[in-house]
Amino acid sequence: MQTTTYSVTGMTCAHCVSSVSSEVSQLAGVTDVQVDLATGTVSVTSAEPLDRAAVAAAVDEAGYELAVTP
Ligand SMILES: [Cu+2]
Fold this sequence. Notes:
Blueprint: E1 2-9, H1 14-25, E2 30-36, E3 41-46, H2 52-62, E4 65-66
Antiparallel strand pairs: 1-3, 1-4, 2-3
Helix pairs in contact: 1-2
Copper (II) ion is lined by residues 12-13, 15-16.
């Protein structure tokens, strides 16, 4: 079990939070998704390490983008 936090750009309200949350939680192996609107981050808990590209695709599907990590 591991939790990875990603920065997501473009989330502005509770609707954005629920869109991202529902898309990311559909990824295989994901057991928990916590979206923090104030910081624009998504913490994803999964049984196995996730492919960042898969998370990016889910976030994109919701209409947002993963911020490029420094
Ligand atoms: Cu919104």
